[in-house]
Design a protein that fits this description.
The chain contains nine helices and ten strands. By secondary structure, it is α/β, with parallel strands linked by helices. The termini are far apart.
C-alpha cells in the first residue's frame, strides 16, 4: 500500500507539473498575441500618421502661396477698405488646408483673368477664387471640385419686366471679365439672333462688385453670377436687388493647381479630411452658406 501511495503521489506531481506548464504556455501565448497586436497597432498608427503628414513639395518651405482675385464675397474679400488680410469662406478653407500641411497660407491677389496663368509662372501653387471647374480649364490644370452652387440672373428689385435671360434682348448685361458667363451670354445671343431678336449687349468689368454697381446705377439691366455672390450683395444693399431667374444646373467651384497626380491626390485628401471631421460644415455655418454646399464629388471624371 505504501508503494501504491508513493506512485499515486508521484503521478499527481507529474500531472500538476504538466498543468502548470500548459498554463504557463497559455499565458505566454496570450501575452505574445497581445504584444504582437500592440506592435501592429503601433505600426499601423505610425503609418496613418505618416499618411496624414504627407504634403506637396511646394509647401516644404512652410508657405502655401495661393492666387485669388480677392473680390468675390463671401468666398474671399476685404471686409473694410484698407484691410490687408482677406476674409471669407474660401480663405478659411485654404487656411485649414495649409494648417494640415504644416504651412501658412500667403495670398497673392490679382485680376481674375490672370489667376490660372500664375500657376504656370509659379507665382502661386493653388488658385482659389470662386473659380468654376470646367473641362477647358482641366485640359491644362488639375482641379478639385468641392463646392456646389447655382448660377442666377440678378436684376434691380424695381425691374418687374426682366424675368428670364432672353428678356435682356437689346439691353445691357454686365459680366465679370474672364468668367464662364461671357460664353453663356454669347450662346444666348446665337439663339436670340436666330429667332430674329436683338442680341444682348454684353459689357465686361474686372470685378463682381463692379458688375453689381452697374445694375444699381441703372447702366445695366442684369448680370449673371453665382447664388453665393448674389446673396451677399443682396444683404449689402437690402431691397435693391432681385433674383428673378435661377439656372437648373449646379456648378462646382474648385481649387486649381499645376498638373501632378500626387499633388492632386494630397489636395483631395486634405479637402475630404475637412469634410470628415466636420470642420467644413463649421466654416459653412460661419458664412451662412448651405450646409450641403460642399457635399459634392471631389472627382472630375
Amino acid at each position: 500500500m505504501k508503494g501504491v501511495r508513493i506512485r499515486l503521489h508521484r503521478n499527481s506531481i507529474q500531472e500538476a507539473k504538466k498543468g502548470n506548464i500548459a498554463m504557463m504556455t497559455a499565458i505566454l501565448g496570450t501575452r505574445t498575441t497581445l504584444l504582437a497586436g500592440t506592435m501592429l497597432a503601433v505600426l499601423f498608427g505610425a503609418g496613418n500618421s505618416l499618411a496624414g503628414d504627407q504634403k506637396p513639395d511646394f509647401v516644404s518651405g512652410g508657405v502655401l502661396k495661393v492666387c485669388t482675385s480677392g473680390e468675390f464675397p463671401p468666398m474671399e474679400y476685404y471686409e473694410n477698405p484698407g484691410d490687408k488680410d482677406l476674409v471669407g469662406f474660401e480663405v478659411d478653407v485654404i487656411d485649414a488646408i495649409a494648417k494640415r500641411w504644416g504651412a501658412k497660407a500667403e495670398y497673392v491677389v490679382g485680376d481674375f483673368k490672370g489667376l490660372l496663368p500664375s500657376l504656370d509662372s509659379k507665382r502661386c501653387d493653388l488658385v482659389a477664387s470662386g473659380i468654376l471647374i470646367t473641362p477647358a480649364r482641366l485640359e491644362k490644370y488639375d482641379g478639385i471640385p468641392y463646392f456646389g452652387s447655382h448660377v442666377v440672373m440678378v436684376t434691380a428689385a424695381s425691374d418687374t419686366e426682366t424675368k428670364v435671360p432672353a428678356d435682356v434682348s437689346g439691353k445691357v448685361m454686365a459680366i465679370e471679365a474672364g468668367t464662364s458667363y461671357e460664353k453663356m451670354v454669347a450662346d444666348l445671343n446665337v439663339e436670340l439672333e436666330s429667332s430674329g431678336k436683338a442680341p444682348i449687349q454684353a459689357q465686361t468689368y474686372p470685378s463682381a462688385s463692379g458688375v453689381i454697381e452697374q445694375i444699381l446705377v441703372g447702366r445695366a439691366t442684369a448680370t449673371i453670377t453665382q447664388d453665393t455672390t448674389a446673396a451677399y450683395r443682396m444683404l449689402q444693399v437690402s431691397g435693391r436687388l432681385s433674383i428673378p431667374y435661377t439656372y437648373d444646373e449646379s456648378e462646382n467651384y474648385g481649387i486649381y493647381l499645376r498638373k501632378s497626380d500626387g499633388d492632386r491626390q494630397m489636395l483631395k485628401e486634405a479637402i475630404e479630411a475637412l469634410q470628415a471631421t466636420g470642420e467644413m460644415k463649421t466654416i459653412l455655418q460661419k458664412w451662412n452658406l448651405p450646409e450641403t454646399a460642399t457635399d459634392v464629388s471631389h472627382d472630375v471624371n
